[in-house]
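Loading example: each entry is read as two labelled lines plus one structure line.
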Amino acid sequence: MLQVDALKKSYGDLVAVNGVSLEAGAGEIIGLLGPNGAGKTTTVSMTAGLLRPDSGSVRIEGRTLSGDTDPNKRRIGLVPQDLALFDELTAQANLELFAALYDLDGPAAQRAIGEALELVGLADRAQERVKNYSGGMKRRLNLAAALLHDPQILLLDEPTVGVDPQSRNAIFDNLEVLKQRGKTLVYTTHYMEEAERLCDRVVIIDHGEVVANDTLQGLYRLLPVTNLLAVELERGQDGLRLDELQALPGVRSAKIEAGTLRVGVQDLATETPRLLQWLVEHGHPYRHVVSERADLETVFLTLTGRSLRDS
Amino acid sequence: MMIPFRALVRKDLQLFFVDRRALVISFAIPIAIGSFFGYVLGGAGDRPDQGKITVLTVDQDRSSISAEIVKRLSAERALDVKPSTPSDARAAVRKGSAAVAVIIPANFGQDAGRAFFGPQQKPEIGVLFDPSHSAERAMVSGVLAGDVMQAVSKEMFNGQTGRDMVNDSLAQVEQSQDLPAQDKKSLEDLLRSVDRWNQQGDRSAAGGVSRGISMPYTTRDEAVTARQNTKYNGYAHAFAGMVVQFVLFLGIDVGIGLLQQRQRGLWKRFRAAPLSRGVLLGSRATSAAILAFLVVQVNFLFARLVFGVRVEGSMLGFLGVSAAFALMTAGFGMLVATIGKTPEATRGLSIFATLIVVMLGGAWIPMFLFPQWLQKFTLVTPTRWAMDGLEAMTWRGLGLEAALAPIAVLLLFALAFGGLAVARFRWEAEG
């Protein structure tokens, strides 16, 4: 459905995007994960036809996207990171305008507006001015505005920035519905939780380059450790020999983080009893033990050497 | 392509009419300021105190001559004459509450009468004036000269003071040993003739005839406009000026609005649609031109209904100038959008530039007050042409041909601004 091939974009000496490629099929959600400034928005802008790439191409069902008036743009719906709405107008008036941008007028436009508002749960607030909406409602309307012309591909540039958890979940539900309808979604975010929840595949971008492109499971396999035990020690870490702990069979890593011992193990079932027994025998009784699964944060840390949040 | 174009234009119009600030700036403020300036500039020509110069008179002489001078001054239509005292008059002129004060000293009538026929020292009339009103001083001095001459001559040839003065002068001449005989005889003949004249005047005074030297002409004033009976209406100039200024402010808002749309991501949404740049910028320019045209018409409609400002010239010309000015404003608005990167940075610079061209265009101060070189220089500003065009079609009452040059020049400005805007527009800016 969507093929992005070796996109490159520079601003003077700054290389914003350097050879980004990705593919997305029907009914698939692709996550574009990376820290702020990684090049996600620039990639989306080129994919939507807003920016002309220095090199590389965007193809939709095999047809290369080019020019302002390329009819292929009708197959794309863009949800900008900003709330691209006219606050002084009603939701209905906003959507009538955005529908008209795609030549939708009259009953066809009204039908599309009704469906979009229904999907995002704002049908009963259509005649209210957008300025009276909450942040979450505006985000949902921002999404609805991109759906009016029934695009096959939806580009979502951090569509949940600044919204409350309830609205975020509502948006996620909307996106799940769209996925079920066979739409192709490209979802940029710097929240790993969002990528983990929504995406079938995740493209990790850093400094304008693709660092990894795989399913979640595939990405986790890149990690040396996928299982972590978080152990809260009764007497703290005094006297604890991390080097001895790491030397145990099956233990991949051991470190203290915020007063909690974190141990990476190969196999939770076999290594956990052995580890806990070792701690007790060496005078470090534990109060509480939790097993943690590796996350995209860890993947990003492993791949780039930096934390996603700190980047 | 027409559906998105229409929708984009409609959206701009909707946004304008739901924006109270825009409505106030485009309608209420120009009407308020135009009304004020129009009143100050003479209103519709029917104001009783219109253009009158406040003149204070201090009559220390209290003679029939000084009374006659004050009476004549008071009869001048252009003057608002009020009696005063020396100290009050000086204070009023210093404060600017009076443009000129005329002080007639004691014994003025007597001394002036003597000086009228003989070589005696001429008495002085004090004229105090506000230095910022030198033109008014010159005017009052001219009026005063005529009034004094008429008042003194009237008294000399008719009044009791004049007769006494003639008799005294005759006695002095007869007793004089210094005058050459021929001169002495001539003066005696003159004074006796005047005395005889005065005695005749006594008889005819019963018939109400008073004499003296009078000005040998009168003036017939006619305001020259293209049509007869068309009066200058100060509101026409004031409303033209304010309309020009605030329509350009509307143009600034159009440009700023475009930058704000970009800042808020709306531009991305527009550009994500398969629309040409012509549709995107053209629709914005069209809506700006429609709004600018509307603002001109509504403001002049108000001026027509409330202050009687009429399109005395060609209505077609007036509409043509309005349309050309509206298009120029649209081009200007587009250009504003290319000046700075942010709305904040652009607004200040644009307002400054607008105020300069508005001032140079004669929107605040009538063009005739400008030095000649500056009047020529202002021809490079579109506001000058807009003002000339609007004034030509309103109170000057000129025909369509007088609108053609302003229309052509404004359209050229519209093309230049629009072309420059398209060339400079940052299509791919991300924020």
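Chain B touches chain A at residues 3-4, 6-8, 10-11, 14-15, 18-19, 263-266, 268-277, 428, 430 (CB under 8 Å).
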